[in-house]
Structures are given as structure tokens and as C-alpha cells.
# Entry
Amino acid sequence: MPIDLPTIWAAIIAFAVLAYVVLDGFDLGVGILFPFFPARGDRDTATNSIAPVWDGNETWLVLGGGGLMAVFPVVYATVLPALYMPIILMLLGLVFRGVAFEFRWRTTRGGVWWDTGFWIGSTVAAVMQGIALGALVQGITIVDRAYAGGWWDWLTPFTLLTGVAVTVGYALLGATWLNLKTSGDLQAKAQRLAKLTAAGTIVLIGVVSLWTPFINTVYFDRWFAFPTAFFSALVPLLLALCALALWRGLRNDRHLQPFLAALGLFVLSFIGLGISFYPYIVPGALTIEEAAAPKSSLVFLLVGASVLVPIILAYTAYSYWVFRGKIDPEEGYH
# Structure
């Protein structure tokens, strides 16, 4: 049986994107929640909780973007022009929050301004990621393997909804992360925020899920036609179980369970998107096979990925293991 290299590479890139979302999502969420922690000490503890891992989390974004350019160049050449504005704003947000993260530790008088910058950068990055996702879901106009849409096609009510949904979801990840990593009053506040953002996230997932099948007939058929409807029906059921585990974990003062359940909401939502998209990589326009690079390129790059991806997984797992446990407010990044 011949190896389906385009599908293997689509799975690798999908995994890289998912890894970025679930890992960088919680540290973006910490930044989004900054206005709810006005005390300098609480903000220091919150940033100390992500200091050892937040830079490494963005490795997956580089892997996903670089892999897309190398393996599916047609997608890179057509999707990027359609999403120039949200992608540029996302990158500027990530850069600005990175600068603010460093400078907030170097000044006391101007610390509040850098804290505001950290919040703005995190929020802009999250909103733009959600908008870019929504624009991809609603469809990109491609004619003769080139983008044929307008400059503002990415800005619609649906993309604004997905932008809000991703931002609230990241805030949930940030709140459950702080619930896991902190103690005392800060943890109690994070727990309350987790309950609010959990309710918002679940409602927004429901609204986006109900809207999506009516955007494109491909989605409608995939969700309601046999046999894919069987798999589509499992996703809402598993989402409900994750939501229940999240709520019970927060009510019973569990620390790890809410964070894992929140991650589960994102993973299942991502799986739902995969069910809707496959075999397209640009919905309704390009399939995985049509967009793939030549076989020789796929084989060459797969050899490199088979070495790099395990290394990235290993050092990521090691860093989380080394910095496991609760944060000591008296120690950390300075």
C-alpha cells in the first residue's frame, strides 16, 4: 500500500497548530486576564507561572507556519494574501507582549504601562487568531490557484464571533492554569474567573457550532450525512462530558482537572473542525492532494520532521516537568 504523504503532512501540521493553541493559549490567557489582577504581586506571580515555558510554546507556531509553506505552498500563497491584516496584527501583538513581558520586570514606575502592553498584545494576538480561523472556515475565494477575494473578506460577523470565542477560550485556559499553578487569594480569584470564562466558552462553542454548518454545504453534509454524522455526533457528547468535568473540578476545588478539561474543549473543537474540513485543506477550494508539494519534497521534509518533532516534544515535556508544581510568590523570573 502506497504511503499517503500529503495526508501524513496534513496531520503533522494540524498537530503543530493544535499544540500551539493548547500550549500558547494558556499563557495568552494569562495576559488577557491581567486587568482582573490589579495588584502588582499577583501579576508578578501570574507571569512567573508562565515564564519558563511561554517562549517555547511558540515553537509550534513556527513549525506549523514553516511546514505549511514548505509542504503546501499553494495554500501558503493563497491563504496568506487573504489574511494579511489579521496575521500581521497577530504577529505584532505577539512581539509587543514579548517586549512588555521583559520590560515590566525592569521598571517600577512604568510597570503599569508595560502590564497594559502585555494585556493588549495578548488580547490582540488571541482575537486575530480567532478571526483568521473564522475566515478560513467561512471560505477563501481561489481562482486558478490564486486568491481572488477582497482585502476585507476576512472581516465578517462570523469571524468577529470566532475572534471573541477564541479569546474567551484562551482566558479560560489562563484561568485554569493559574488555578493549577498558584495558591491562596490568587488561586481563588482564578477559580472564579474560570467559572465565568467556562460558561462563556461553552456558550460561544455552541453558537459557532450551530452557525458553521450553514456557511457551506460541505459542512452541512459532513455534519448531517451518514456516515460522517456518526463521528460528528460524538463531538458534542464529548464536549458535554468535558464541560461537566470542568465544572465539577472547579466546584470541588480540584487543581489539575479543570485545566485538563479546558484543554479537552479545545482539542474536541479542533477535531470537529477536522471532520468538517477533510479532505479539504482550504474548505471548498483545495484538497490536501491538490495543494501538496512534489513527492520528493514531502519525503525529504518528512525525514527532517521525524527528527525535529520528537526533539521538540522531548524538551517541551522536560521543561514542564522541571517547573511542575505551585509557584512560590517569593521566587521566580526577575
About this structure: The chain has one domain: 5-322. Residues 129 and 251 are 31 Å apart (CA to CA). Strands lie at 142-143, 146-147, 280-282, 286-287.
